[in-house]
Design a protein that fits this description.
By secondary structure, the protein is of the alpha+beta class. It folds into 5 domains: 2-94, no CATH class; 100-199, Uridine Diphospho-n-acetylenolpyruvylglucosamine Reductase, domain 2, CATH 3.30.43.10; 201-323, 2-Layer Sandwich (Uridine Diphospho-n-acetylenolpyruvylglucosamine Reductase, domain 3), CATH 3.30.465.10; 327-519, FAD-linked oxidases, C-terminal domain (Vanillyl-alcohol Oxidase, Chain A, domain 3), CATH 3.40.462.10; 535-574. It is 36% helix and 18% strand. The chain is built from 18 helices and 20 strands. It has helices spanning 53-56, 68-94, 104-117, 128-135, 156-169, 222-231, 248-254, 261-264, 300-303, 337-349, 364-373, 394-410, 422-433, 435-442, 460-474, 500-519, 538-542, 544-557; strands at 2-4, 7-9, 124-125, 149-151, 173-176, 194-197, 204-208, 213-217, 236-237, 272-278, 284-286, 313-320, 322-323, 327-334, 356-362, 384-391, 415-418, 446-454, 477-483, 488-496. The strands form 5 sheets. Strands 17-14-16-15-19-20-18 form a 7-stranded antiparallel sheet, with helices on both faces. α3 (104-117) packs antiparallel against α5 and α10 (337-349) runs antiparallel to α15 (460-474). The two termini are 65 Å apart. 42% of the residues are buried. The structure holds flavin-adenine dinucleotide. Flavin-adenine dinucleotide binds next to β5, α7 and β12. It catalyses: (R)-lactate + 2 Fe(III)-[cytochrome c] = 2 Fe(II)-[cytochrome c] + pyruvate + 2 H(+). It is an enzyme of class 1 (oxidoreductase). Residues 22-49 are annotated as: Disordered. This is D-lactate dehydrogenase (cytochrome).
């Protein structure tokens, strides 16, 4: 009998053979096999005392109870398993088969090639802190990895050089622009990735005032463009206004919009006339010319809007500009958020609806956060509030305002007022744009998950009502803001840093919000895009056929899947049911 902890074995009959009975001398008698000498046991054969039972009866032990054949078979099996494990390890380390991307050795080769192609020290970085910073975002809680290298191109030709090296070394490429996107869009790739930082390509190349258009590099920021037009005294502006710091390339990548979408539409309207794009094979194309209209074939510009850097790298863009009109800002307070939201459609459908540039909702908690964050010169009433930006000359604004005032009153508004000065109007608007920062400022030490959904405008009151109720029941701290004129709203959900349980609660609440929106014929994202965070909802929202079409386009343009892999397109195994 021998024992292992908790188990005892009793052999019921004597073994027919023992190590001593096995002859090691070769003999070729009839019916006998050639017996090979066995390897010596890995420890002294003189005494087996003190050797644990499992070693004592191992196939290398002199006390092994089986025949020589069993011994040889067991030994060979163990050697074979060891060999397979070792081969797998080396194979994974040096030749990762994951979509055929560069092995660690090839990543090093790619970095050397990039350094040789861009000898200026500031153009290529492998600083570990930077690699981590550029591969992750404080605003995203999706899986991430640091990049392997950051490269800073200055021109389209530079981008072509980078793409060619990436293809040669099979290195994934991730374009990084304003880094304000919210769904893990520019996360690094675990096997290694080249981060292409477009901050050096931020120039305005031409302003064509007579045609109301402008050509710029894709790293230009929308705020800088508008500031330049203002400084030059040109009565024009670019109306897409996503997060502060966003760039033209990123805005094209995410298919953004913003507060002005009520009046001017989104990135998918015709604000981008022509794009210069470096394709995944290094070829440079222009999608159109500068003409305001074109019916020459289908719209290849649109192919890259919302493609999240997965189909090509936009290096230059021709933007259509809008005339700058005088505006005034008004706000209306409501007893609850449903009443506020229900007033919106009436205002937009009124004869003055086309003078409304923006309608934004900030719920009572958001108003309180703005006051608490201390970024305002006077505290605002803490109630669910609609902000309106109204366009026109003074008499036109007066008429529109009277109409809005009457409509909001009908929907239960207790107070309606204009910003008394330009400065106050600007401050009000900045507070809306910086709502996320105000929320973070009011609850310092906490982290914030931002999400957006969009439904047909008439369904918005139901969505907002159910969501507020749900969030209250979860006990999470949250604020709500929305571009409600488009049926689009954002929830900012707060949780304690390092509190995984609360983070899981937030993630569940976001999932419920998205499903609620889909059930109301809405979308999982009105403007922030898919990235990593929303790709699991795409099949449910669009249907398998549409998603397969998107994937086919991706495979045709980028057969090696090198441009921003892992974003936008749902993973094959995660397909959910079609709608
Ligand atoms: C406070 C705050 C408020 C926000 N408000 C809004 C809002 O009102 N509306 C809205 O739509 N969004 C909003 N956002 C989200 C964000 O501003 C937008 O998604 C914006 O369009 C991202 O631009 P970016 O330059 O920061 O892009 P990045 O974050 O750098 O990149 C976004 C995606 O585009 C790709 N990309 C970047 N550059 C290029 C290029 N040159 N060619 C091809 N692909 C490229 C990237 O690889 C990535 O997939 C907000 C964000 C914050 C933090």
């Amino acid at each position: 009998m021998f024992t292992t902890p908790g188990v005892s074995f009793q052999f019921s009959r004597p073994f027919r053979t023992s190590i001593r009975s096995v002859t090691t001398k070769p003999s070729l008698g009839s019916g006998q096999f050639l017996r090979r000498p066995l390897p010596p046991p890995p420890y002294s054969t003189s005494s087996s005392s003190g050797i644990p039972g499992y070693l004592r009866y191992s196939p290398w032990s002199k006390d092994f109870p089986g025949s020589w054949r069993t011994r040889a078979l067991l030994q060979s099996t163990v050697y074979a398993i060891g060999l397979v494990v070792a081969i797998n390890y080396v194979d994974k380390l040096w030749f990762p088969k994951d979509r055929g991307y560069a092995s660690p050795r090839e990543v090093k080769v790619a970095i050397e090639k990039l350094k040789a192609a861009f000898p200026e020290e500031t153009q290529v970085s492998t600083n570990p802190d930077e690699l981590k910073l550029y591969g992750s975002s404080d605003n995203s809680y999706h899986p991430t990895s640091p990049h392997s290298v950051i490269v800073r191109p200055q021109s389209t030709d530079d981008v072509v050089k980078i793409v060619k090296i990436a293809v040669e070394c099979r290195m994934p490429m991730v374009v990084y622009s304003g880094a304000t996107s919210l769904e893990g869009h520019f996360s690094g790739i675990s096997t290694g990735s080249i981060c292409i930082d477009m901050s050096g390509m931020d120039k305005i190349l031409e302003i064509n005032e007579a045609d109301s258009d402008l050509v710029c590099q894709s790293g230009a920021k929308w705020e800088d463009i508008n500031q330049t037009l203002h400084e030059k005294g040109l009565p024009l502006f670019f109306p897409l206004d996503p997060g502060p710091g966003a760039t033209i390339g990123g805005m094209i990548g995410t298919g953004c919009s913003g507060t002005n979408a009520v009046r001017y539409g989104t990135a998918k309207a015709e604000w981008f006339l022509n794009l210069t794009v470096v394709l995944p094979n290094g070829e440079v194309i222009k999608t159109r010319r500068r003409a305001r209209k074109s019916a020459a074939g289908f719209d290849t510009t649109k192919l890259f809007i919302g493609a999240e850097g997965t189909l090509g790298i936009v290096t230059e863009a021709t933007l259509r500009l809008a005339p700058l009109l005088p505006t005034k800002v008004a706000m209306a307070q409501f007893p609850n958020v449903e009443k506020a939201v229900s007033a919106v459609q009436d205002v937009l459908n009124s004869p003055y609806g086309n003078q409304i540039q923006c309608v934004e909702l900030l719920d009572d908690k958001m108003m309180s956060a703005i006051n608490q964050a201390g970024l305002v010169s006077r505290p605002y009433p803490v109630s669910d509030t609609l902000f309106f930006k109204i366009q026109g000359d003074d008499p036109a604004i007066k008429l529109a305002s009277e109409s809005i005032s009457a409509i909001v009153k009908k929907h239960g508004s207790s107070r309606y007022e204009f910003a008394s000065t330009e400065k106050e109007a600007e401050e009000l608007w900045m507070n809306r744009k910086y709502a996320l920062m105000s929320t973070m400022g009011a609850f310092s030490g906490m982290r914030c998950w931002t999400t957006d959904v969009c439904v047909p405008v008439s369904r918005l009151p139901q969505l907002v009502y159910e969501t507020k109720k749900d969030l209250e029941e979860t006990g999470l701290i949250s604020t709500i803001v929305g571009h409600v004129g488009d049926g689009n709203f954002h929830a900012f959900l707060l949780f304690k840093d390092q509190d995984d349980q609360e983070l899981a609660k937030v993630s569940d609440a976001v999932h419920r919000l998205v499903r609620r929106s889909l059930a109301l014929d809405g979308t999982c994202t009105g403007e922030h895009g898919v990235g990593i965070g929303k790709k699991e909802f795409l099949v449910e929202e669009l249907g398998e056929g549409t998603v397969e079409l998107m994937k086919s386009i991706k495979k045709t343009i980028d057969p090696l899947d090198l441009m921003n892999p892992g974003k936008l397109y749902p993973d094959d195994e995660k397909k959910s049911s079609t709608h």
